[in-house]
Specification:
382 residues, eight-stranded antiparallel β-sheet, 14 strands, 42% strand, elongated
């Protein structure tokens, strides 16, 4: 099993006045330690569940039967791939060729007195444990399409009478500690980090967009499994965010309103049954995020903007999740409170949460979302 936590590059502490750096550094360290601890605990819990699933399979079938079955699968996969090679493979019906592959493996299972239904039932019971070990995607308040919820948008902030999306920045009244401040673009800095966890047969890949000058931000996440065993899985949690410095004018929780235009949003998934006691599911979730790098914070605040879920053994999907050119907004509040005068980093951006479970099913999953963040309003609420 591969577990990779990439914390990304360091935050630009030089942007904060030396008088306030101690608190800012404590906030950075606390956020990094929190995320790394969660990643390590998740990897440990998942490995425990995976080993339990492998043990269950060995106990039900016997080590010799498992080894013989896997050897037969490897041989049939190689033969199937060779049958598609030119020149004889040109024009071969892939579905018919795979059907023959499955029939021969069914014969092997029958000879070994393997009951696929019983094995599938045993492995299926492990899925709930895997779900808990990976960590369920958070169910949070949704982001909203601005045009369809215009009255709610206007009521959120008195600044919405201005064209914030075109760069209009109304003057801040220093006498009003409850007033919204408006940030970026351009943003001072950016940050990208990934928390990836995968079994041996899955590969996790991807890329990201982060243009502080224009406000463009996004994630691409890929989960690929060409040769699934009985218990394969992958999960990728990716955070990409713009970073700026904020000084709290009063004590309370940090509130943020993010206005972003969708440039591209697609969920793509293809999966194909290989053989056996097959099952599969894939989830792709997208969020707007707020992360205040302050010691009092215990987690990111998230707003759900897109959800995609499919299960089964054969299928192909390419879904446009959102409308390019439309504005979407999220209203987020931190779980912890800051003190008046505290100076710290704030990150706003997007989180990708993609995961897949494959049991003798080939899987290719890709999510691709790009945003143009037009404005960020921030204040402290008591």
């Amino acid at each position: 099993m591969a577990s990779i936590y990439d914390g990304g590059r360091n935050l630009p502490i030089e942007l904060i006045d030396e008088r306030h750096r101690d608190l800012a550094i404590k906030g950075i360290d606390a956020a990094t330690a929190r995320d790394r601890k969660a990643a390590e605990a998740r990897a440990h819990n998942v490995e425990t569940v995976a080993e339990d699933a492998r043990r269950t399979l060995r106990d039900k079938l016997g080590a010799a039967a498992v080894a013989e079955l896997r050897a037969a699968q490897r041989a049939e996969r190689a033969a199937f791939a060779k049958s598609l090679e030119p020149p004889k493979g040109m024009g071969v019906d892939r579905a018919k060729a795979r059907h023959g592959y499955r029939e021969r493996l069914d014969a092997v299972a029958k000879r070994l007195t393997i009951d696929p239904a019983a094995i599938k039932h045993g492995l299926h019971a492990t899925n709930a444990k895997l779900d808990a070990a990976l960590g369920v995607p958070p169910k949070v308040a949704p982001a909203l399409n601005t045009a369809d919820n215009f009255e709610r948008w206007m009521a959120l902030s008195p600044l919405h009478k201005y064209r914030l999306d075109l760069g209009v920045r109304p003057p801040l009244d220093p006498a009003d500690p409850g007033a919204f401040q408006v940030v970026g673009p351009p943003f001072p800095s950016g940050l990208h980090r990934a928390d990836n966890l995968a079994s041996d047969n899955f590969r996790i890949g991807g890329d990201y967009s982060l243009s502080e000058q224009q406000g463009a931000i996004g994630n691409i996440a890929t989960l690929d499994c060409n040769d699934a065993g009985s218990f394969d899985f992958a999960q990728s949690i990716v955070d990409t965010e713009f970073i700026f410095v904020y000084q709290a004018p009063r004590a309370g929780r940090v509130e943020v309103i993010i206005d972003a235009m969708n440039l591209f949003g697609h969920d793509d998934l293809r999966f194909e049954d290989e053989w056996g006691w097959s099952e599969h599911w894939t989830q792709q979730y997208r969020y707007f995020s707020l992360n205040a790098y302050h010691p009092a914070m215990t987690n990111r605040a998230l707003a759900s903007v897109s959800e995609f879920y499919k299960e089964g053994t054969d299928g192909s999907f390419s879904v446009r999740a959102l409308t390019p050119g439309q504005h979407y907004y999220s209203h987020l509040v931190t779980d912890g409170a800051v003190a008046a005068g505290d100076t710290f980093f704030v990150g706003v951006g997007t989180r990708s949460f993609d995961r897949s479970r494959a049991n003798d099913v080939e899987v290719h999953s890709k999510s691709n979302f790009i945003w143009l963040v037009r404005s960020v309003e921030i204040r402290v609420v008591t």
